[in-house]
Amino acid sequence: MSFIPLTEEQSEIQRLARDFALTEITPHAVAWDREAYFDRAIIARLGELGFLGMMIPEQYDGLGLDTWTYLTALEEIAAADASIAVAMSVHNSLPTQMLLRWGSEAQKDRYLRPMARGEMLGAFALSEADAGSDASALTAQAHRDADGWVLNGTKAWVTNGNTADVVLAMVRTDTSEDRRGARGISAFVLTPDMSGFKVGKKEDKMGLRASPTTQIIFDDLHVPADALLGEEGMGFVYAMQSLDNGRLGIAAQAIGIAQAALDHSLRYAQERKQFGKALREFEAIQFKLADMALRVVSSRTLLHAAASAKDRGEAVTLHSSMAKLMASETAMWVTTQAIQIFGGYGYMSEYPVERLFRDAKVTEIYEGTSEIQRVVIARELYPASDP
Predict the structure, then answer these.
(1) Strands 197-202 and 185-190
(2) Any catalytic annotation for residue 8?
(3) How far is Cα 144 from Cα 153, in angstroms, rounded to an integer?
(4) What is the pTM (predicted TM-score) of this model?
(5) pLDDT digit string (tens) for 264-285?
(6) Which end of the chain is more exposed for a tag (fewer CB within 10 A), N or C?
């Protein structure tokens, strides 16, 4: 359900994403969730269809599409399986866009083309065990050597961490004698074949179980000088600007989860009978369904406004934080209502809304918690000149 008109091209891409999701993802989503299994073959298929290079220019083998078209496709994937959607979201929103915006031509030539084709999967490594919301407190350290850099430290909660072929990692390049805060952090383009690159613990999660989340360990990781992305000391700035894009992707993921929960609830309320009537005939259920639909459509409309602002070249920190906050809280609220409509069945893993509920929760946490989004929004409400 949407009040946003799509172009013919957007509608075709939406249909392609929906058909792919229904035929190649939905039949396996329950088993993948139960077994915490990540199917890399699905990622390859997404790449073959162009879904991993949607915002990469055609000169680098991407589709060169606008943000809203990408988010429309992402929502369809998320409605089938949020685990696959987050792999698609992280890849499209963070490492590819960082390389496109700040990478050297050599880095773009080496990585963007295979990433657009789905031959290389990207990951983004910012957080650490003691640096989550306060990401600038990270401690992973890089030191110069004769040939480049030596990295040491551990990154936490890395989506695609044990399957990625390219990792954009934020590491300190200042020194203990000259700490520069956020301006002492640089971004590096890493690959798992580098000496000293290790994959650590894989997390056992409540939701998104088919999406691998791991530690990445740098143990005297030797990287060449040309692995530095952009300017030294600018990595944290790059990461924060890229998270504006990432939050739009998480918003689309959350909307996909919420839409799926609404769709299941509509069908169940039609089929399930109590006291001789279908659930949909009870006013209490009607009001729940109406409020669920309202929040889903409102979230999608706000996300469309944010995507449009981004494509116009506007600063979107405020837009993306609002969209992510509203969509993630919508996903959590809508899936909660869906379980209530299903009653006891909703609490059972045999029914789809249980998985959607578990998947929804993390959208309020990663790429900036709801609390952090409110901090960002509050700050953005005041002009820069104000005290």
Answers:
(1) unpaired
(2) no
(3) 15
(4) 0.95
(5) 999 999 999 999 999 999 999 9
(6) C
